[in-house]
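Entry: Beta-galactosidase trimerisation domain-containing protein
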Amino acid sequence: MLKLEDSPTAPGLRSPDWYKSATRWTQLTFVEDDPQRYDPDFWVDVFRRTESNALCLSAGGYIAYYPSEIPLHYVSKFIGDTDPFGRLVDEARKLDMHVMARVDPHAIHADAAEAHPEWVSLTVDRQPREHWAMPGIYVTCAYSSYNFDFMTKVIVEIAGKYDIDAVFGNRWQGHGVCYCKACEDNFRAYSGYDLPETSLAADPVWQAWAAWRRTTLTRLVAHWDDEVKKVKPHASFIPNMSGSSLMEFDLSVIKKHCPILFVDHQGRRNVEPAWSAGRNGKRIRATFRDRPVGLITSIGPEEIPRWKDSVQSGPEIEQWIHAGITQGLFPWFTKFNACIPDDRWVEPTANAFRLHAKVEAALTGTEPTAEIAVIDPATTLRHWDPDKRHLAELNDLGFYQALVEARLPFEFISDQVMTAEALKRFKVVILANATYLSDEQCQAIRDYVAGGGSVVAAHQTSLYDEKGEARSDFGLADVFGVTMKSPPRDKVRNSYVAINGVHPINRGFHNSQRIIGGTELVAVAPTTELDQPFLTVPDFPDLPMEEVYPRLPPQGVGVSARTTAAGGRIAYIPWNIGEVFWTYLAPDQGLLIANAVKWALGKAPEVTLEGRGVFDLGLHDSADGRTLCILNLTNPMMMKGPLRDTWPVGPLKVSIEIPEGKTLRSASLLVSGTELIVTVQGNRASLDITEIETMEVVHLLWA
């Protein structure tokens, strides 16, 4: 295998295109006593073993790991006459690696807080916000001169002193509402309001603050990037976007200033499926399809107690990285503390990175593709406090799980960039519960349907406009073919939908007469000719037990289905089916979702996979071929990590559609490294896979 130290100069090194060849990242986050204890040679060996071609390294902010000359920029008291940041930057450059300097401005020491109280975030009772985890230090105001002035000096100093390609901002966005005088004045000048004291989605003051925050943070990203480029024209400031699907920023500014993006979703927490690693990558790609996106993976557990200096199980590390690769994300691992009390993470991380190196050529230049798109409802999610936003995503999570179980490849598209032109590359568009949609967004869906597109929608989709104002009817009532009879109801118990006649959407339920319905319902009536594969069973008491029986026969729309004049298909489900499926995981609701999507598709899916197991699929296209990533999720720890071991599955039969005008030349399995015998019938290539351990990559090349 080619060693990094023997390789030719890395493409794009120290050029504006540096990010294009930064595809495997090591991140080391120093702790304060590292300078006198850590072994640089160990880390150089890690760079080699993982075949990393990029490094993200702690430089400054809360603590500087280089001899900073900026007053009040706290330098590690253990640094002595060394320069740990500069040392590893030099070692990485010797290996032709790209380098990004990490800064963290979210806290300051007491001397800086005393000298500049205006840098400190204030609580709602106007008291300095002491750090929640480290007494004696203070949380900074992200919207103040601390970031715009002081941190700018830090960033410029690092870019001027060291051979870097970028500066990476971590925890730079602030922690909620700051009640300092500058925030009060600036927000009042922007909105006319006093600062909000609640985070209710319906509060216009909260919405105004969220918009002001987006404007301020976006301006900060542009400012820092401009200042970095004054020192190093090829370099960039790259903000940590977390997993927010870019809803927190002005997209035009991000498009101009951020050539590469990262998902800071470092591992599973509590009950969480492994596919969520790729989900956030899809969400960022839903806004910027042309940006490379990396997945940050922690080598330690990500649970609330934050055992940041511990080690995750090897199979869990590998599965998380593989899940990102499946959905087109390049790998990045992060280690807190340069000293190594437990090295069990090194080999599994190296294994996963080497797998990426093995399949990288087949994925380079490809574009993730799918016939099915889920609308990422940024307009809806923006109405929620980030700490409560997960409650607004339950329907989306249920649809995601159902599509994974149905083995249907799909992509996301953000409603922020949703146009009829952008939608037309998909055959089916899913709105799991896009409650808030503007008139323009509704029109984009309407135009897509007029062009022959199909839609699967559920619950309160389009009942509110982008400002949060309730509509008298669905904004997409004409698309759904129904009208709202009465306002939504919640906290419904003992709700069911009854199978009505024979229809592809109600197949597979055997002799069942009814299945579980919603806990939130919208009563609707048809406005056009449509099928009703399910009828609503009017809910009835759940106690006393003697009273648990239906009072009325099934009546009213439980699921509607219609074919449009343009040839598309529309399925609408007037209850929270996604949330019900995600919360209880009863198979009936997952089957109903899958049936509705397959019916709306109106053809055989591009990819079919036969055999026992659960798989996440990622389909990638280029002019030269088609690449199918198959992630094996079959494991008792699929929904709750950490994995103890991987469970191989197989045999499997895979059928992949050959695009019109293409002829198959060859097929291979890139992970196992074997050529395949492929049967071509019509426009489909069929092949057998004997066994998959963690993941496999099917690579088809066209003649």
